[in-house]
Automatic annotation (TrEMBL), chain A:
Protein name: ATP-grasp ribosomal peptide maturase
Limits of the ATP-grasp domain: 130-317
Keywords: ATP-binding, Nucleotide-binding
PROSITE patterns: ATP_GRASP (PS50975)
Annotated GO CC locations: cytoplasm
Gene Ontology molecular function: ATP binding; metal ion binding; ribosomal S6-glutamic acid ligase activity
InterPro entries: ATP-grasp (IPR011761), GRASP_SAV_5884 (IPR026449), MvdD-like_ATPgrasp (IPR048936)
Pfam families (alphabetical): ATPgraspMvdD
GO annotation (BP), single: SOS response
Gene, per the UniProt record: tgmB
TrEMBL record, chain B:
Protein name, as recorded: ATP-grasp-modified RiPP
Highest taxon of source: Bacteria
Residue segments, region Disordered: 67-99
Organism: Streptomyces boluensis
Length: 317, 99
C-alpha cells in the first residue's frame, strides 16, 4: 500500500499536524526519527535485478516496505542513537555506516520528496539563497560577506544608507551557561568605529531596506501562502523574530512577478517547501531576504488561517 | 535534483550528536578574538517564552499526546522560536541554518 514516510523528531509538533492531516485523509503513514535507528528501528533493504530498494523498515509498532513508499516528508531528524556501550571509535564508525546505509537507502528512494534532504542542505546556505533569488528575478539587498573590517567600511560608504549585520548561519548558541541569539542588527556609526572581531570569521552585511511590513511566504509545492507581518516595536522592526509578542499578521496575496520568481527559485533548488522572508517597502516593492527550506509554519497557519498543513498533506500524497 | 557535490553528512543531514546546540560554560573571549556580531547577542526574554504542555510520544498515533485530558499537544501550542534563555530549553531550530 502506498505509504508516506515521515522523518522528523518525535517532539516536532507541527509534524504531528501533518501526520494527522495525512491519516485523516486516508493516507498510510510511517513516521520515524533517525534516532530510532538502530535500537528501535530495523532496516532490511534489498536490491536486485528485478527491482530497486525494497524490504522492510520495522519498529515494534509497524512496518513498511521500502518499495511502497510513495512520498517522504523530511524535517530535521535527530542523530542515530547508538548503544552506550560502544567505544568512541566504534560510535564514529557505526554512525557513518548508519548514515550511508539507512540514509543512503532513504535518499535513494525514487518518490516525491518534501523536500529531498540533499536539496535542503544545499538550500540552507544564505549566499546560495541570495544568488539564486537574484538569478530567479527577485529583488535582493546589496550584500557583503567578509572578514575584512576595511571591506565593511567601504561597503557602508558605497551603500550610502544604513546597513544591517546578521548571522550567515545559525543565530543561536550557548556560552556562559546561557542560550543567546544574534538578531539582525542595524549598524550604527559607533558600531563601525570598533570592528575588532570582524576578522575572526565571515560576517554578513546588507543595505537596510525601508519596510512598510514584512511577508512570510510559505511555499508548498505550487501553492504560495503569504502572510503580512507587521511589527509593533522598534526591535521587531529591525528583526521580527526578536519580539513575536508585538507582531500582527494578515493573509495577503503575492504579486505575480514575485510568485514567478519564487516558483523559479523552488525549481532551481529542487525544493517543494520553503519559508520565504520578504521586506515590502512603503511603495510596495518586495525584496527577498532568505528562504528557509525547513522553516516554521505552524504559527503562521494559526495566526492567519492559511491552510499550510492541508497543502503539505496534498503535496506528499 | 541538485547536482551539487556535497559532503555525505549534508546529503542526509541530522542534528549533531549531543544536541542541536552545543552546551558550554565558557565565557566570551576578548574583542579581538570574539566574532564581532556576537557583541550584539543577547539572552532571550524568558517572560516571552512559550510554555509547552507536558506530553509523551504515542507510537500508535505517531504523534505526541498530553499527559492529561484535552486537545492533542499540537493543537495547544503554535510556538515560533521564542526560547527563554535556558540551555535546557532551546528553540526549535528551524529558523535559519541548521549547523
Amino acid at each position: 500500500m502506498p505509504t508516506v514516510l515521515v522523518i522528523a523528531a518525535r517532539d516536532d509538533w507541527p509534524t504531528d499536524r501533518v501526520v494527522k492531516a495525512l491519516t485523516d485523509g486516508g493516507a498510510e503513514v510511517f513516521r520515524m526519527d533517525t534516532a530510532e535507528f538502530p535500537q528501535e528501528l530495523t532496516l532490511a533493504g534489498r536490491l536486485d535485478a528485478r527491482q530497486g530498494w525494497s524490504g522492510g523498515l520495522t519498529t515494534a509498532h509497524r512496518a513498511v516496505d521500502l518499495a511502497d513508499i510513495s512520498a517522504v516528508y523530511y524535517r530535521a531528524p535527530n542523530p542515530f542513537d547508538l548503544p552506550v556501550t560502544m567505544s568512541e571509535p566504534e560510535r564514529r564508525f557505526a554512525a557513518a555506516q548508519a548514515r550511508a546505509g539507512l540514509g543512503g537507502i532513504i535518499t535513494a528512494l525514487d518518490c516525491r520528496w518534501v523536500s529531498h534532504p540533499a536539496a535542503m542542505s544545499r538550500a540552507e546556505y544564505k549566499p546560495l539563497q541570495l544568488a539564486t533569488a537574484r538569478t530567479c528575478g527577485l529583488a535582493v539587498p546589496p550584500t557583503l560577506i567578509t572578514n575584512s573590517p576595511d571591506a565593511v567600511r567601504t561597503f557602508s560608504g558605497d551603500v550610502g544608507a544604513p546597513i544591517v549585520c546578521k548571522p550567515v548561519a545559525t543565530p543561536v548558541f550557548i556560552e556562559d551557561d546561557q542560550l543567546k541569539i544574534t538578531y539582525t542588527r542595524r549598524v550604527t556609526e559607533d558600531d563601525l568605529d570598533d570592528l575588532r572581531g570582524i576578522d575572526t570569521t565571515a560576517h554578513l552585511f546588507q543595505a537596510w531596506v525601508d519596510k512598510a511590513y514584512e511577508v512570510r511566504l510559505t511555499a508548498v509545492g505550487d501553492q504560495l501562502l503569504a502572510a503580512e507581518i507587521h511589527a509593533g516595536s522598534d526591535a521587531a522592526h529591525a528583526d521580527w523574530r526578536s519580539d513575536y509578542n508585538s507582531l500582527t499578521y494578515r493573509a495577503t496575496t503575492v504579486p505575480e512577478p514575485v510568485a514567478e520568481g519564487v516558483r523559479r527559485y523552488l525549481s532551481h533548488l529542487d525544493l517543494r517547501f520553503a519559508a520565504f522572508d520578504f521586506i515590502v517597502s512603503p511603495d510596495g516593492e518586495w525584496t527577498f531576504l532568505e528562504a528557509n527550506p525547513c522553516g516554521q509554519w505552524d504559527w503562521i497557519e494559526h495566526k492567519t488561517g492559511l491552510p499550510i498543513a492541508d497543502e503539505l498533506r496534498g503535496t506528499p500524497a | 535534483m541538485s547536482t551539487a557535490i556535497v559532503h555525505p553528512r549534508e546529503v542526509f543531514p541530522l542534528a549533531p550528536e549531543g544536541g542541536r546546540i552545543t552546551y558550554s560554560s565558557a565565557p566570551p573571549s576578548a574583542p579581538d578574538s570574539r566574532p564581532w556580531i556576537l557583541r550584539f547577542a543577547r539572552v532571550p526574554d524568558a517572560a516571552h517564552a512559550t510554555v509547552k504542555p507536558p506530553a509523551v510520544y504515542d507510537n500508535e498515533l505517531q504523534m505526541s499526546r498530553g499527559l492529561y485530558d484535552g486537545p492533542l499537544p499540537y493543537m495547544q501550542t503554535h510556538s515560533p522560536t521564542i526560547p527563554d534563555g535556558n540551555p535546557g530549553n532551546p528553540p526549535p531550530l528551524d529558523e535559519g541554518a541548521k549547523d
